[in-house]
Each structure stands twice: as structure tokens, then as C-alpha cells.
Write the C-alpha cells for this entry.
Amino acid sequence: MSQDIDSKWNPLTLIILIAVTAVILIGGFVLLQNMQDSKVLMTITAVTWGLGSVALLYFVLNAIAESMPRKIRSIAVAVVFAGPAVLMLVWALVLPTLRSLRLSFADAHGRGFVFLDNYKFAFTDPIMLEAFRNNLLWMIFGTSFCVIMGLIIAVLADKSRAEKVFKSLIFMPMAISFVGAGVIWKFIYAYKGEGVNITEIGLLNAIVTALGGEAQAWLLLPFWNNFFLIVIMVWLQTGYAMVILSSAIKAIPEEINEEARVDGANAFTIFFRITVPYIMPTIITVTTTILIFSLKLFDVVRVMTGGNFGTNVIANEFYLRQFTYGHSGQASAIAVVLLVVIIPVLAYNLKEFRNREVLK
Amino acid sequence: MTKSEKLKTSPVGRIAVAVVLVIIVLAWTVPTLGILVTSFRSPSDIYATGWWSVLPHKAYAKTDEFELPRDLDPNGPITIEGVTAEFQEWRNGIVVQEGRRLQWYGNKRSRKIEVFEEKWVGFGANLTLQNYRDVLSGGTVEFTDANGNVITRQGNNFAEAVLNSIAVSIPATVIPILIAAFAAYAFAWMEFPGRKPLFIMVVALLVVPLQIALIPILRDFTRWGLTGTFLAMWMAHTGFGLPLAVYLLYNYVSTLPRDIFESAYLDGATPFVTFVRLVLPLSIPALASFAIFQFLWVWNDYLVALVFLGDKNRVVTSALAAMVGEKGQDWHLLTSGAFMSMILPLTVFFALQRFFVRGLMAGSVKG
């Protein structure tokens, strides 16, 4: 018997430990709910409690697992280690996917069964068609600008001695939120209206008027306003493309370039004949990542135009359907469409994963 | 290219590359510079002139004024300093000679002429910290617009928003790391049923768009009374961040040498002790990479905060977005607010760029 349960935890300690953990977990939550008065104190408590509880939970669960009979102990420990992550993933992503699928066939309040009505909306409603068209613009122009600019900068910076500084500055917008970037660019597009002696305070209008043009409300220009929004994503994401492509370029063996140079190839030939083919796999990865990104794009449009003036996108319509029109069926159908579009990438990832046999 | 390689490029080529790069970098940094400068200017200056006017430039500045004789008829052609023009033209201002402009002030009866002379002005801007004080405050704030009107606004309480962002971001960064590190260790070095299918699930979830999860999770939170709480944000961000975290950390932990685990086992260390004493310290580079990635992602997130926090406990992104909606023309508040929201992520970014880049490389797809 004692051989079977040779735990270093005696049952009493274990029970006390579990009780204390429960008190801390529940007590902390109740305490936090009643601490709205002092924000600083509340922040400190929230951070300590949040982190402390998780660490404590693992400690206690592990203690329980170690007290299990020998035969199942190693499995019990593995369950304690991997279990929370798996449970979180199932709750946060796996089940919601199934539930969204179910909701996409239900009515506005998530009840009943309305066949394909929500999908009919998703694929035929003029609002959705406009959103699809705009997302296509984002995916085509946004992605290609990001990748091409990223590639150009990566190649040029590679030839420069101040490479690090240049790259840091281009990369910097990655740390800025889309909402922050929205304010930055809204200020660039600022328009004061018509009248005599108006000094434009928006950079774009100032440049246009200085060159003899006429100031515009850029975000209201039909169709072209999409491109003024796309510029924001290019500004934010080019750094990402540049960093990844730059490291791929650096991995090209120097002998290959050297040989080509000896054969008399100029910089352009080397770029198109050697650099680009060599880093093609990386270009494809980066392109896919930014494509997915521009498909799910939400914040910029939400902050800059709210999807008005012909700039709506799918993810914004998803938000509007759920939170403005309160139609969870239509919103879920849109989410399912987003998922379906991404499935080829998902399948490709899985195939790559199997090929690499990471998991022995 | 190596250092010696870079020197080999011809000088002309090097200069051309440098010029192009400088132009691109300027285009990339000027937008941020614009709001940084604006956030320190007084509201009336912001509406009157562009932010670039703080740079040294030639501009007309008022130097003098004089009154015209009483007997002058403002309705006919008016001659001043040798130039003859109608009232309306004088009202708009006329350059009478190089660098000297005269402008009629007020209505026809005023007969007052203002003299503007072109001179170099530079760094003469009135810089102030008042915008930051106003945007941090939750009470009422006042400012003067370009026409001299005093305008009163309700402050956006960014001080509280920053604290909320911290309360959301730190646990939402550390909790998924801790959970993922335990799981990564289990997937890499433990035997348990379902190990392989569960890991394939993790890989599949890497690219799932989070929109698919928002509505069902919101329903759970509503049922459990968690909407608007930090706990809800931590849970959501943990769930959404876990696939990438487990994947990245697994890739790292699985490359640790087997010997160290074997010798630890022989010394009688339990898996828990091995994890805390060996795996965590050895994985610090991978943990740091993901931590920065996740921190920036959570801090800059708007969608998740909008859905689960709503207007309760606003974080910086939602406070800033709300301000854009309410005060779209109050550039002094918008720019200082935007900068408040950027300070922390920019600091983290510049201090730990190396780790961030490594994290980006390791997993270039995220849902």
C-alpha cells in the first residue's frame, strides 16, 4: 500500500493546499470586483492575482498528480502539464468554431434553423459584395505593396553600411496599434474645407496645394479612399516583410553572387536571376501571412471611416452585424466565410508539418 | 552582404542606394514625427499652421500697423505705397514689394493696415505639455481654438486607460506563456495518449481567424457575468495566443539536449522540478521572443477589447478610438492620446527588438 502511494504529499497538507488555492482564486476575483475606486491599487492586485493564481494552480494540480498511484502517475503529470493548454484551446477556439457554424444556420438570436438564409445574405447582399470587393483590393494591392516595398528595402539596406538604422526605422510602425496609426494618418489626410486663405494643416493637402493642386477630403473620395486606407496597412506591415525577407537574403551563399558577378552579371540580373528565385519560399510565406492579415483587417477601417463612404470590409461588417444590428446568425455566417477562405492555408500548414515530422 | 562586401560596391552606387533609402525612411518616419510635434503644440497653433511650421522657414510675420487718412474713400480704388487696388484685394493682402505684404484689417471703416514682413522663423514654436495633462485627465478640460473661442470638453481619462491596458496586457502575456511552456514540455518530452493528434490541433489552430470565436465566447462571458472584467480579457487573449505560444515553445524545448533531462531524472527530480529548474531557465530566449510578440499584440489589440470590455475599463486603444469618434477635430488631444498609447510598446520594441524579430521569424502566421 505505502509502496503504491509513496507520495511526498501527505493527504492533510494536500487538502489544506487545495482549500487555500480555492480561497485565493475566488477571493481575489471578488476583491477585484469591489476595487473600482483606486485604479493603481486595482491594477497591481489584478496583475499579482492573475499571475499568482495560475502558478498556484499548476503547483496544486501537480501535487495532486504526484499523489496518484504509481501506475497512472506519469500520465497524470502529463495531463496536468498539457491539460490546461488543451482545455483553453478547446474552449477558446475549437468549440467556438463549431458553435459559430451552428449559429450561422440560426436566426438573429441564435435560435431555430433558417437553412442558408445567412449565407445568402453573406454572398448576395450589396453591402457584402462591396465588402468583398474592398477586401480584394486590400489583399491584392495591400499585400503586393508590402511585399515589394519590403523586398526593395531589404535588398537596398543589405548594400548599405547604416543597414540597422534604416531597418529599425522602417520596422518601427510594427509596434504601433492600428488605432494609433489611424490617428497618425487621419492627421495626414486632414482637410479644413473650402474658403479663402485657409492654411491646410494636413500634410497631404499642404503638399497638394503647394504643388498648385486643390485640397481634398481624401477619405470621402469614392473608390480611391480605399487606397488611402491601404497605405496605412502598407506603412505598418512593410517592416514585417522587410525583416523576414532580409534574413532570407542574408542566407544566400555569397559564392553564388560572386560567381554571377565574375560572369559579368549586374545588380539587376543578380536580383531577378538569383536573389528572387532563391528566397521564393520565404516570399510565399510572407505573402500568405499578409494576405490572411488583410483578409481579417478591421481596426483601420473601423477607426478611419467606420466602413462608410464605400470602404467597408468583411471583418467590419461582421462587427456591425453582431453589435449594431444584433444579428448573430449573419455575423456567424461571415465569420465562417472568413474561416473557409483560410482553410487552404491551414491545410498547407498541416501538410508541411507532417512532412517535417517534427513530432517523432 | 559582409562588411568588406559592402565596401566593394562602387561609390556612386553606394550614394544612390543611400539617397533612395533616406527618402523611403523619411516617408516612413515623418507621419509619426508629425503627431509627436503636434502633441506638444498649443491648440490654437495647431489649427492655424501645419506642424512643419516649427521647422526653420521663411514666413510673413506682422511687424507693424498704421491707419489710413480719414479722407480716403474705401469704396473706390485705394493706393498705398504705390500700389492701387480695390478694397477686397487689400482685405486679402497684397505684396507691395519683395518680402513686404500689406493687409487691410477688419471692415471698411477700420482703415487699419497691417504690415507683414517675410523673415526667417525657426524653432519659435510654443511647445507645451498641457495637451498631455488634458488627455490624461478624466475631468473637464478647456482649450482655445484658432478663432479665440474657449471650448470645454470632457477629458478622456487616458491615465486610467493606460492602467487598464497594463492590467490587461501583463497577465495576458505571462499567463499564456506559462500555460504554453508546460504544454510544450509535455508535448516534447512526455508520453501520453493523444499527444500527436492534440499537437496537430495546435498547428491547425495557428491560422484560425479569431472572428469565428468572438460570438460564442461573448455568450459564455455574458452567462458567467464576466463581460467587462480583466479576467475575461486574460482568458480570451490566452486562448487566442496559445496556438502560437505552444508551437514556438515546442520548437525550442524539443531541441534541448536529452542528457539534461536524463541526469535530472537520475538525480530524482520530478518533472515539475525539472521544468521549473531546467526547462524554464534554458528557454528564456524563446520565452522572451513570444512575450514581446504577445505583449505588443495584446497592447495594440482593439477588436478583442471592443467586444469583451466594451465601455467598461477602457484600454488605450478603445479610449483612443472613442476619442476619434467624439472629437475628430481636436488634434491636440488626439495626437497626445495617440502618443500616450504608443510610448510603452515603442519602448519595449526598441529595447528588445532582437527578441521580437526572432519571434516573428519562428511563427509567421497568427490567427
Observations:
- Residues 1-5 of chain A have pLDDT under 50 and may be disordered.
